[in-house]
Amino acid sequence: MAEYRYLANPDPEWTDFPNNLPPNTRVVGMNRAHDPITPQEGLSITELSIPIRDNDHITIRLYRRTSTSNEPLPLLMYMHGGGYVTGGLETDDSTCRAIALNINIAVINVEYRLAPEHKFPVGFEDSFDVLRWVASETGQAKLKTDLTKAFILGGTSAGANFTAGISHLALREELSPPITGVVFLAGSFCHPDVRPEKYRDRILSVDEINDAPGLTRKSIDYFAGKYGAPPEDKRLSPLLFESHAGIAKKAYFAICGWDPRRDEALLFRQLLEEAGLQTKMNVYAGLPHGFWTTCPDLAASKDWLERLLEAMGWLVE
C-alpha cells in the first residue's frame, strides 16, 4: 500500500532507539517470565490449570473486578506476543489488569507453549484447546462467565495471528457460543513468501521497513524459522482463507505505522469489513511494532491503552 508509506516516518522519540527516548524512560524487554501474582486493589487475579489434548495442561491467569465475584461476565481471551518463541503471562499483565478493571469483563491471559521447544502447531493448538474449554459449560461455570453477553478473542503480534486463525477454525467447527469480537494488536496475517498475487501491490511494508526497532524482515524470518510453520498453512497465514465472513461480529485493529506488518493489517481490516464485520482501527504513525509493550510509560503508549479500552467497551456493547 504505497499510499501508506508516510506512516513509516519515524516518531522522533523512536529514531536511533533508545537514544532519543525521554530521560529515564522504562524499556521493557521480552521474556518468558512467570512471576508470582502481585495483588491489586479492586481486582481478583487467580491462575488455573486448563486441560488440553494429550492429557496436558496450560496455565491461564484470570482477572475480574472483585465487585463482580458472583456476576456472570462476558469474556476476553487474550494471547501475548513474542514471535512464538518468547513472551509470557507477565508480558501484557498490566494491559489485562487495565481491561478487567475498567470494563465489566473477565479476562484470561494464556500461557501457551513456545518454540523452538514446542514448534508449530503446538502454541496454536494450546490456545485453541483453551478456547474450546472456555466455551464449554464447565469452563463458563468455572470462570463465572456468560459468553452470550460477549465472547472476545484477541492478542498482540503472534497472539493476534493466533486470533485470526483460531477464529476461522472456530467458525468452521461451529463453536458454541460463537466468538462475537476479535482484537488484533500489531497483528500478522500472512507469511511474506505466500502473499497472494492479487494483494502483492498492497503488502509492501514487509519488504520496505527494515530500520524499525522491535521488528524487521530479518527478525520475522528468524522467528518463522524457530516456529517452523509451513508458510502456506492457513493457521500461520489466515489471509489465505477463502472467506472471512462470520468469524465474529466486530473487529478492532491497533496498527503501527513503522512496522513491517502494517500493510497486511490494513488489508485484513478492509477484507473483514467487506465480509460484513463491523470494524474499528487506530493507526499509530511513526511508531514501531508493539511500542506499548516496549515503552509502556510513554504518552503514545498511554494513548494506545486509552483507545484500547474504548474499543473494548465497543466490543462488549
From TrEMBL:
Domain Alpha/beta hydrolase fold-3: 76-292
Keyword terms: Hydrolase
Record-linked Gene3D superfamilies: alpha/beta hydrolase
GO molecular function terms attached to this record: hydrolase activity
Source organism, top-level taxon: Eukaryota
The keyword Hydrolase appears for this protein: yes
Matching SUPFAM superfamilies: alpha/beta-Hydrolases
Residues annotated as signal peptide: none
Pfam families: Abhydrolase_3
Protein name, per record: Potassium transporter protein
InterPro entries documented for this protein: AB_hydrolase_3 (IPR013094), AB_hydrolase_fold (IPR029058), GDXG_lipolytic_enzyme (IPR050300)
The organism of origin for this protein: Pochonia chlamydosporia 170
